[in-house]
Design brief:
Two copies of one chain form a homodimer. The first copy, chain A, has two domains: 3-136, Jelly Rolls (Sandwich); 139-203, Arc Repressor Mutant, subunit A. Helices cover 39% and strands 27% of the residues of chain A. The first copy, chain A, is built from six helices and eleven strands. Chain A has helices at 3-13, 98-101, 109-137, 141-156, 167-174, 178-190, and strands spanning 18-22, 27-30, 37-43, 46-51, 57-63, 68-70, 82-86, 90-96, 160-162, 194-197, 200-203. In chain A, the strands form three sheets. A four-stranded antiparallel beta sheet of chain A has the order 1-8-3-6. In chain A, strands 2-7-4-5 form a four-stranded antiparallel beta sheet. In chain A, helix 1 packs across helix 3 (109-137). The interface between A and B is large, with 41 and 41 residues. Chain A binds a DNA duplex through helix 6.
DNA sequence: ATATGTCTGTTGCATTTGCAACAAATTATG
DNA sequence: CATAATTTGTTGCAAATGCAACAGACATAT
């Protein structure tokens, strides 16, 4: 699908969209029950974060160009528990889910395409989410790390890559304790599974 | 959305669907790279299972009436690593993802509805998957159990419920060791957080 | 009714993980 | 450039988890 074209068309046709730019560290949106907002990330990277009462901070999702997020994808129970934070300068398109579904009852060509494109977006999202579940289903930090590294390296077609998180954030993404993760990284290095210079990892010994 | 109507219509209109009945324990499908099969569970319950080389068995997903599954939702790397197993007698509708997207280029009313209905299905799926991620993101067995119990009880509007898994399967669903989970259940009981008779749980002390 | 298999429940022990605290390195910021 | 803030890297120790092994309960099949 041509996401680029879809988004441009969408913005042109639908006067109910809003476009906004955020700088690093800003909160792009907090999730609010009943609002049904949909956001498309046009530029930059951002994280969906949940802060637990326990103090744990979970990176629930990591978004880059063309990713969709917003309340439609969640059962929101508590307002403002979930929020999206810009990791770099971000451009975001906001609209309401209703615009997609409701208007489609009219028979215009545009909205037919819109629904189809949105389906594709969602399919991608489900696929991504499933790899996330796979990651979290691993029972040890070591397995999580190895699985995660394999995912990146197969996506990038190379055994050397830079982790797209800080290591602190990676721990939150894998839902493990940072120092325990560092320890495991050290052991993986010592045992010759990986090379590591800062956030740059090379996988050895397939 | 009226899923019932959607499915009946779909089956009537599209001669490329197949309907099949499975009995308890049978394998409904294994995931095969490139096939793009979509399945809708019309009746019964089934689990999506991954068997790891480590011997761990993960219940990746748990399906009931009207749930969708199939290769479209996954990045399949290894054939037959993922498979869906009937937990009770199941009726399943099979079709190919192509039928949805491709035919939509014709302007028939039916396919427009089909795409819209499918979007709704996917949205539900994403929402469910996100609660699954929330569950797996919890760092201790205790938190996973409590979160899971809260999810069930809020879904059922009651503090007493029967876990829809065997306890063995629940451990696989929460991705933890069974005996460790049993130990934690025992402690939760002793500390007065829950009552427990077999698979029947009552949550005390909100 | 008996045997077979699966599920529940339990426990001791080894391993893994989280926690806390700190130093060094790196990155932002006035 | 200097200072503050964040991130990386490390470690000892306590707590949580996984592993293994077993007994009893329950269900299913012969």
């Amino acid at each position: 699908m041509d996401m680029e074209k879809f988004i441009v068309d969408f913005e042109k046709q639908c006067n109910k969209t809003k476009r906004k730019v955020f700088s690093k560290g800003e909160t792009i949106t907090t999730y609010i029950r009943g609002r049904q907002q949909v956001c498309i990330l046009l530029e930059g990277t951002a994280d969906l974060i949940r802060c637990e009462r326990s103090g744990d901070r979970i990176i629930v999702d990591h978004f880059s160009k063309n990713d969709v997020f917003g309340e439609v994808f969640y059962n929101i129970t508590t307002n403002r528990e979930l929020f999206v934070e810009a990791k770099q300068k971000c451009t975001v398109l906001f609209f309401v889910y209703d615009n997609i579904v409701t208007k489609c009852k009219q028979n215009c060509r545009f909205h037919k395409e819109l629904v189809a494109s949105f389906s594709e977006l969602m399919l991608d999202k489900i696929t991504l989410q499933n790899t996330r579940v796979e990651l979290l289903s691993k029972r040890s930090i070591r397995e999580k790390l190895i699985t995660y590294f394999k995912m990146i390296s197969s996506k990038n077609f190379t055994n050397s890559f830079t982790v797209p998180f800080s290591l602190t954030d990676l721990a939150d993404y894998l839902c493990v304790d940072r120092s325990a993760m560092m320890r495991e990284l050290k052991m993986l290095k010592e045992e010759g599974f990986i090379e590591k210079i800062g956030n740059k990892i090379t996988m050895l010994s397939q």
